[in-house]
Write a structure and sequence with these properties.
This protein has about 220 residues and is of the alpha/beta class. Helix content is about 60%, strand content about 10%. Strands 2-1-3-4-5 form a five-stranded parallel beta sheet, sandwiched between helices. The chain is globular, with a radius of gyration of 17 Å. The two termini are about 25 Å apart. The structure holds cobalamin.
């Protein structure tokens, strides 16, 4: 078992193939990806952020590591995609307009896939109008929004207002670093669920949807 520091070293300086393979294997071995994200991947990213903030590494080093993490997540996600095929929970996962921290949203999407939901991941910087159009058109009943910074958290308010107009019955959750750093702002956004912990958020959403909608958990 590698420590967070050893994972960060491998992603920043190790052989890229070895790094992706090791992380992908750890992800596929771990039945509960949400917990692995919370306990391992997010701390690795935070460690990389600290090294970046203290100038121990440059932005290119951070980009290299983040892209290797994204590659490993994508590999692992491909092996689980099919489990939500029959689910009545149709979730759209997106970064709000302006938000570039897509790895966090990717983790929320993967955790939702493991809950057996049908999930569409829209990625970084989704324009609010387009998000609303897509949610309405796809008849999604859950929307997971991710915001890491204060301006982007404020942007989530506009997204939620638009979503209420076009999809009034959808359960809207907001998570990400932004709600942890600015909880007083988060409380004013009008979201149904404001929670950063993946398992806690997904369980709260299933509860709101009611037992008839909650699917069997994926393995
Ligand atoms: C990698 C990184 C980037 C990459 C992102 C690459 C990518 N594809 O994601 C790039 C280079 C694009 C980037 C850009 C910027 N970044 Co940056 N970045 C980071 C870094 C190092 C890691 C981010 C990460 O992946 N974290 C790991 C994730 C998994 O953690 P998380 O966000 O908390 O998400 C977890 C939970 O919150 C939850 N979750 C997340 N979303 C959701 C949604 C729902 C619905 C639910 C239920 C749960 C949930 O699940 C996750 C798993 O546990 C952080 C450092 C840090 N401490 O995080 C800085 C950091 C977030 N960045 C920061 C900044 C300032 C920026 C820039 C403004 C820099 C600049 N001057 O340009 C830009 C902003 C761009 C923008 N408009 O969004 C600051 C934010 C400070 C703040 N609060 O305002 C940080 C904290 C660095 C720092 N210490 O200053 N960044």
């Amino acid at each position: 078992m590698r420590t967070v520091g050893e994972w960060a070293d491998l992603l920043l300086e190790g052989d890229p193939e070895e790094a992706v393979e090791a992380l992908r294997d750890a992800l596929t071995r771990h039945g509960d990806r949400a917990t692995f994200f919370e306990e391992t991947v997010a701390p690795i990213q935070r460690e990389i952020g600290e090294r970046w903030a203290s100038n121990a590494i440059g932005v290119a080093d951070e980009h290299r590591a983040s892209n290797l993490v994204a590659e490993a997540l994508a590999h692992a996600a491909a092996t689980r995609r099919s489990i939500g095929g029959q689910s009545r929970v149709r979730a759209v996962v997106a970064c709000v307009e302006g938000e570039l921290h897509a790895l966090a949203a990717r983790m929320a999407a993967d955790a939702a896939i493991d809950y057996g939901w049908r999930v569409t991941f829209l990625g970084a910087n989704v324009p609010t109008r387009e998000l609303a159009r897509y949610v309405a058109q796809s008849k999604a009943n859950v929307v997971l929004l991710s915001a890491a910074t204060l301006p982007n958290l404020r942007q989530a308010r506009h997204a939620i207002e638009r979503l209420r107009e076009v999809a009034p019955d959808a359960v809207v959750a907001v998570g990400g670093r932004g709600i942890v750093a600015y909880p007083e702002v988060a409380r004013t956004l009008g979201a149904d669920v404001i929670e950063s912990d993946l398992n806690a958020a997904l369980e709260a959403i299933e509860e709101r949807l009611g037992p008839s909608l909650a699917p069997e958990r994926g393995s």
